[in-house]
Specification:
Blueprint: H1 2-13, E1 23-32, E2 35-40, H2 44-49, E3 52-58, E4 63-70, H3 77-101, E5 115-120, H4 126-130, H5 135-144, E6 147-150, E7 155-160, H6 163-177, E8 185-194, E9 197-203, E10 206-211, E11 232-240, E12 246-249, H7 250-256
Helix pairs in contact: 5-6
Length: 267
């Protein structure tokens, strides 16, 4: 029954919101003729040589599970009643001791606790997560360490052995399925440069043009004087036209980020 107590404490320590702690105690019985002795919290030897192994587990409010092995013919209600009464006293005593260690579940789920995270996406985006021949979803699983399952309704289930793995997988999926938001500042690589500006990838597979006039406050003669292919830069999404083309501004992003300390390694 120690496993019942330890499992209950482990779940609460991990932040699993169980309703109440659960403890267990094993009751035994020795009978010689008319002489009967009910034993509390029996050991292995008492189990082997005794006439009963009666396991009782539960919370302060009541019994949640029982299991009995007996080696005698029948059991009187009197013996059973005594065993249940003693089991109740033993269980409450154990729960008092458990409360001294931890009396309720922790509010935060442990970073090391396995979990399943569910998110709902637009079903039209399922193909983008899976990718050609499953390439994208395999890459997400390989990088994050999580397992991903998607059904036709767009429900995505992320199973992970740790909070970090689950959060990383969710972050990667949301980056794929989210729609560009006008007014938001993004960070991404410069995919190409031209005489009239730079194309910056703000989300996986989503690029926009940062016009040469939006690179900086000062006049820019050449795009490469400010940004080169492969640079990581912050840009603000100014607008999306009727054809879905994105207009970006590094100048506007810099203005909003002016109070952020420099030296973060970004262009």
């Amino acid at each position: 029954m120690a496993t019942v107590c330890a499992s209950s404490l482990a779940l609460m320590d991990a932040g699993v919101p169980i309703r109440a702690a659960c403890a267990g105690v094993a009751m035994g019985l020795i009978r010689e003729g008319d002489d009967v002795a009910v034993l509390t919290d029996i050991l292995g030897l008492e189990d082997a040589l005794g006439d009963m192994d009666f396991k009782v587990a539960g919370t302060r409010k009541g019994v949640t599970s029982i299991q009995m092995d007996i080696k005698i013919q029948g059991m009187t209600t009197a013996i059973l009643g005594e065993a249940l009464e003693r089991a109740h006293k033993g269980r409450i005593h154990i729960l008092d001791l458990m409360d001294q260690a931890l009396d309720s579940a922790r509010t935060d789920l442990s970073a090391y606790a396995p979990r399943i995270v569910s998110i709902q996406i637009n079903p039209e985006k399922i193909g983008e997560i899976i990718g050609p021949k499953g390439k994208t979803i395999r890459a997400i699983q390989d990088e994050s360490g999580a397992t991903i399952d998607i059904d036709d309704s767009g429900l995505v289930k992320i199973a992970a052995v740790s909070g970090e793995a689950g959060a990383r997988a969710r972050e990667m999926i949301e980056a794929i399925v989210q729609d560009p938001e006008v007014g938001r500042i993004y960070e991404g690589p410069v995919k190409n440069t031209t005489t009239f500006g730079a194309f910056v990838e703000i989300m996986p597979g989503v690029e926009g043009l940062c016009h040469i006039s939006e690179l900086q406050d000062a006049r820019t003669e050449r795009t490469e004087d400010v940004l080169k292919k492969g640079d990581i830069t912050r840009v603000k999404l100014l607008s999306i036209d009727e054809k879905g083309r994105l207009r970006l501004s590094r100048k506007a992003a810099l203005a909003e980020m002016a109070d952020v300390p420099s030296g973060d390694g970004h262009t």
